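Inputs:
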Amino acid sequence: MSTASPAAIASIQALFEDGARQCLAPGADDQLVLAWQGASAGALQPAPRQTAGRHTVVLSIVSYGFRIVALFDFDTTPASLARFAQATSHPLEELEGQAFTDLCAETVNMICGTVNRRLAAIFRHVGMSTPVALESSATHDLALLSPTWLSHAALTLDTSPLLNLALCICVAPEHPLDFRAEPEPRETEGVGELELF
Amino acid sequence: MMFSPGSALFGLVLGVLLGAGLLTLRMARDRSQSRQRLAACESQLAEMANHVSADEVERRLAALSTQAAALREEAEREAAAERQRLLEAHAADAADHANILAHQRAVHLAELAQVREALRAEHHALQADIDSLSGMVATLTRWHDEMQGILHNNRELKRQNETFSSINKSVVMLALNASIEAARAGEYGRGFSVVADGVRDLALTSTQLAQEYKENLNRNDLVTTTTFQDMQASGNMIRTAVHGLGAAAGRMREALVQQ
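Outputs:
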């Protein structure tokens, strides 16, 4: 039976939080909040099906003993698009069609790239895939991947929903997952300080 | 000039003789012959101190000086011989040590050669493994391309299913229109109405099947895409690991060449 320790799950969630903050709220970390809801395989009931007006991108991070499938579910309503444009410093009027799809993929790539870099400091060998768009219903079918742990998070920026994140952690039975990722030290900006030479 | 105890000449002579005697003693140290000669000298000196003329003293002094010089030369010869012996012994020891060191060096060089040979063999095996793994990476790339083909085909199936679903909806509409027309035809259209209802039922069933087929395709898409990503990410991971192994093998080769 495959297992993932609570510390490992918490660490993975924290890494995605860090990645999302660095990518979507640099310098305003406390405005971005991820409300996690997680359970072992099959026990978690995801949010009600609502596939219209959404865009889902999936990306995988793997090592020898585990893989993390991350599904980012973007809301395409005008209000969410405006927040997304603001968070990514992108002109709203350009967020249409392929440009929106590309920006979603780029955002996912950046968040997961941060996670991958942090995991590579813990595990000797880690690899990351490219992002691929999927139907939004995929969020409800993650049990097909035989996950060891499923987590869902609603990501809000300034208390307004920005996107949903689903993490599917699949662990090989012979490699129980147990690690603890130390929080990355935040850079302190010395605003208005004198530099002495 | 009288030569008597207490005179200056006597003191001088006595000092010289004693000095010679002491020198003799130092030079002949452990040799009994020298001690005997010294004892004789002392005896002669004692005799001279009592009643010996100056000429006799000078004669004896000359003889004693000659003896002292001879003894000094002998002692110097012996010291030189001893130095030579020590030098030869030291040279012999040094030669022995050099031989031992040369032997140990030869043994160590032989052992080092064995280790290097073993390392060279290990390096060849490692390089062969790296080449095999590089081939594995190429295989993963091939799978990656094939999986992309499957994903592309999935998208094509979904597009066809959407077309099929659209046709079904049209058939349902047509069947509905046909039912309406059959109703207008009254008694004459009754049979046609049964056919229209049957067509509509079939179309609705087809629509239901198309919807289920779409959901299955979506599930298939999820599994195929994540499997594709698993292979892609694993390929990236293995490629990085193989590059690391290649770099390590290169460093090992350089170390072997430099030795």
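Remarks. Chain A touches chain B through 25 residues (CB under 8 Å). Residues 6-24+34-42+56-171 of chain A form a domain with the Chemotaxis protein chec fold (CATH 3.40.1550.10).
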